[in-house]
Amino acid sequence: MNVIDPTLPQAVGQIDRRGRLLDAESRLLELNQRAGGQIGAPLAIPAIAALARLAQRLGISISRNVVAADVDDDIELWVRAEPDQGGVRLEVSGWRPRPAWRAPVGEQDRESDFFRAAADWLWETDAALRITYLSLEAGTRYGFDTSAMLGQPLTRLFRLEQDESGNLPILTAVAAQAHFDGQQAELRGTGRMVRLEATPRSDPAGRFAGFVGGAHMLGTAPAAQPDEFVEPVSDTPFGTFPDSFTQRLGRALRGPLGKIIANADSISAQTEGPLKPDYAEYAADIANAGRHLLGLVEDLVDLQAIEREDFSTLAEPIDLADVARRASGLLAVRASQSEVRIDKPALDELMPATGEFRRALQVLVNLIGNAVRYSPPGGMVWIRLEREGGRAHVIVADQGKGIAVEDQARIFEKFGRVDPTEPGGSGLGLYIARRLARSMGGDLSVDSAPGMGARFVFSLPARD
Asked: How many domains does the chain have?
């Protein structure tokens, strides 16, 4: 690679809405050609192409430091991607060469890696504190739509709280372009509290360019005692492990599995360029296997929790219609991929009840997810609301093959599956869902017959 003067002006390029390079100044054009691309073809520099796609999807300008491969070496670039005239305008500056093997890891990078590894989930913003990234599992686990939050102000997701001095640590950090910790906030719409921590990004001119952060959930589990090594043993094969160990194991596995799924999905979708068909199929298989393992991890962590003698749920005022709409939104992409339509409650429908929002959402995600899985292409999943006396009901019905009467008790048993050879989950989902429903003073039942689909009824105490 020829040495490039980093003081040279930025190189400008334009790509269309399909990611094809329409025009570029010489330095960007030559870099793209060395990567195997050409005018009229998809941009061949993966890091820049990915940033352009993100900017186009969110509809906002995004600036970020990226590293591009160039023959035997790498180039550090500062790229600004701005949606423009149906495509994306690129402004590329920096152009700092470096040997490919020298990945710079400074104190800030090590600090960022440390707190991100310890966080429950991750987030990133641009310089205007608009959300540009959220962990895949965060929305499903804590009850918000991650895709809807991308591009939104950080305060749309978090209600920030002042510290003891009356300040907001995050705003102090913006002014100082510094790391912050201890910013407490409420996760809007859930009542859950979090502690936010982040390190800043800077552009080549030293200007603030956003935060790379982690969220730590507060008040979700009692702290372990220093001398506590052994938990009571339950009747499950996993009861011999301390509860704190299971939680740490779940946290350690979620992050890597989430990355495997995201990267495999990206390869399968051929977002970085065309692949041999069998390679794309391999990537899809990897993503599906990763989702299966991630679901199993979540089920095992929940199983350990609900079988503790001291397990309990919160008695919160919730709207089951709203919970059902949120669960449907979280499963909209899966339903679309399966060619199944979800008929969810209308926006003006209400069903006041008492229960724990997060656990009610977990139950409905399980029920609707199962209904989508077992519905045929072109099928429909109906979600209906009913009130009967002091009970509020959510009914989830599908057009699947149905469940025989003699099998209906088995599906609620631990590891219970009607057909173990059929694709599906771990056999824990409905067992956990019913335990959660009953812990909130409600219940979960099924009404079905072979060839007639299945009708699950989730009930909670009604609220006036």
From this structure: 4
